[in-house]
Design goal:
Chain lengths: ~70, ~450
Amino acid sequence: MATDKKYTTVSLPTPLFEKIQEKIKGTGFTSVSDYVTFVLREILTHGSEQEAFNAEDEKKVKDRLRSLGYLD
Amino acid sequence: MRVAVIGLDCAAPDLIFNKLKGDLPVLSRMTSEGISGKLRSSDPPITVPAWMVMSTGRSPGELGLYGFRSRIPNSYNGIKIPTSSDIKFDTVWDILGKRNKKSIIIAVPPSYPPKPIPGLMVSDFLTPGKDKEFTYPPGLKNEILRDFPDYQFDVKFRKPEKKQIIDEIYKMTDTRFKMAEKMLKEKEWDFFFMVEIGIDRIHHAFWRYIDQESHLYEDDKEMRGKFISYFKMVDTHIGKMLDEFDEDTVVLVVSDHGAKHMKGAFAINQWLIKEGYLKLKSPIKKAGVSLEDLDVDWAHTKAWAWGGYYARVFLNIKGREPEGLIEKGNVRSELETLKEKLKSIKGPHGEQWNTKVFEPEEVYPVVNGDRSDLFVYLDDLSWRTAGTLGYDTDYLLENDTGPDDAVHDYDGIYIMYRKNKKIGKVIDSNIYRIAPTILELYRVRKKYGIKGEPLEGTEYVE
């Protein structure tokens, strides 16, 4: 089963693969896989922090909605 | 074929098609050459949920979205502000995205936090602040703030400095359109949908300068001039967008609801106290206090309400609310009695009101999420409701939360237009037809199986 393996394969369009290969030349990234993993982790971490409002955000938005007359 | 939706929050048919017609050459041309009419909003006719009804083709009942707040199930004071995470159905851009169509989505409520889509998304006025990630992809935010450092999600309009507010709204709208125009020019897109909230703010803050029927009417040439200049600016921007669009782009100008002058605000929780439905443990010490700040005697309370442009009334039911009073077997009779009492509320001078009261199940085929037991449109929405208490009278001629001139009306607008197609038809329609129209134009409506029909006459622009 794929879940038992440490790594699995995804497909990238060849021109994109080549673009990444070019981009990481001379950088700390040793392979396209390394780079893609890094970028995806970054994006997904961002995403999970963004699930909804934290308490402070919710208060900010509530205060604004109250001043707009939507909550009273 | 591409579709571009330009959403003008609160744009009202009588203003766009009639009173301001001569001042708006672009919208007037689109109206005379395209298909246009009134667009009946959802129930309730409120920004949230109306834009999502338009974007998904689903009712507020299905979406489980009845306004700018949702009750934390069965609680007395727990509320939650809807976010993009609460939208459990595919929007038209989600459906198009699955078919490799790239979208540019700007400020469609509620869209914070922005969701990943094939394309670009900027979140709406419910975004907590510019310090947050308000775009997808995240890097787009830096680009926007570099090019448009003054970009604003919204303005605060309930303050007395009228001239300052109108200038702020003008600047906010002008900037958002400039940003949208830049994105249309520079980015790759197959579908475009933006919402401009400034029109709604202008209506609420400045309706008194253009409607002689309003009890707040002021004959102020300068302010009226500023009001009209604002709409001319919007019209000019739409003209610039049309210049960008090719002959294969269908343009939809739409609004989520309309507007009319506010007659006043009715303090509904005070009324519920007088009618014996709501009990407090201690007296109210100051005017304008919220129910959540009072010591409510829940064990002896039968009903309480939330205010806003419509009222939501909750029954205190045994087994549902923490200190429920009404036995389950009596809910029906209590509902019927309360409905009749609400409908018989008269105006401040004893005049008859045309109040509409309904249960969610009466208007939605499916009812999801925590909803109030009754929805109330006081005097057909002309009176808004104040949930706050402590006033000498139940009838407040000004809004309880600061100056406000307008309430919502059922009918918004739509104009469907394509360059070089001369159609010139007026057909009134409803908000549930917008999502099917968009999908029909991309030829995916039947494959996706969305409920509802496209706007009548869609075939003329295909």
